[in-house]
Amino acid sequence: MKNIRELLRDADPLRYEPTWPSGQHIFRRQAVLAAASGARAPAGVGARMRIGIFATVALIVIAASFLGPRVWSLLVSDLQAAVRFEVRLAEDRPAAGLREAKVSGSNRSVYLHDEVIVTNSDIAGARIVQGGDPSQYGVSVEFNASGAEKMRAATGNHIGKPVAILLDGQVVMAPVLRTPIGASAVVTGNLTRTEAERIANGITIQ
Amino acid sequence: MARALPVVVAGNPVERLASLFDVHYDRLYRLARRLAPSADDALDLVQETFLKAARFPRSIPVGTTNEEAWLVRVLINIRRDQWRKTSVRERYDKAGFGGSHIASGGRDPEAALIARTAVWQALNVLPPRRRAIVVMYELEGLAIPAIASLLGISPITVRWHLSMGRHDLTAVLKGLYGRHQ
Question: Are residues B113 and B30 in the same domain?
Answer without folding.
Answer: no
